[in-house]
Amino acid sequence: MPEDTTAEQAAPEDLWRLRRSIDNIDTALVAMLAERFRVTREVGQLKARHRLEAVDVAREEAKVARLRENAARAGLDEDFAEEFIRRVMAEVVRQHRIIAEEG
Amino acid sequence: MPEDTTAEQAAPEDLWRLRRSIDNIDTALVAMLAERFRVTREVGQLKARHRLEAVDVAREEAKVARLRENAARAGLDEDFAEEFIRRVMAEVVRQHRIIAEEG
């Protein structure tokens, strides 16, 4: 049984089933995000070694546009998808600058 | 070849390879987010039918705590993970309120 201690103990069986799906999806999302930052750390080290800029605006904008298309096809709100990827990319740039300074 | 038209055309082969990984991960993230909102829309409809509250603070806080643990295990920054899931949950609540009003 899930750890609910609230009014929703009275909720239907379906709710419990759907929440199991959400929990599984969240585990997958965390794993995917962890892997994305693992790869972008490698990119950061490569950029630092080759003294490349941490930010590539043209590539970022192309990425946003492509992600919005993917979102539309998958039935995900495009603005939500854009906000999400911009937040991720900002964190990547922050990490790349730290890597460049450390290197 | 990727669609880079910037200075990074001169970047090493490894960068291209890593960016292919990032693009694949982003496709997976979009698909997972789309699926999460598909499931939470079902939850919203269920809650509306049973006149349950859109927000369950106890469940949300338990979810945040569990996600931070998952993030730590996966090597993902815990604060980033928390900010991410809180943004997702805020969007879910917004959608659930719309569903409740429409119902």
Automatic annotation (TrEMBL), chains A, B:
InterPro entries: Chorismate_II_sf, Chorismate_mutase-related, CM_dom_sf, CM_II_prokaryot. Keywords: Isomerase. SUPFAM superfamilies: Chorismate mutase II. Residues 9-100 form the Chorismate mutase domain. Signal peptide: none annotated. The keyword Membrane does not apply. Its EC number is 5.4.99.5. SMART domains: CM_2 (SM00830). PANTHER family: CHORISMATE MUTASE. This is chorismate mutase. It comes from Falsiroseomonas frigidaquae.
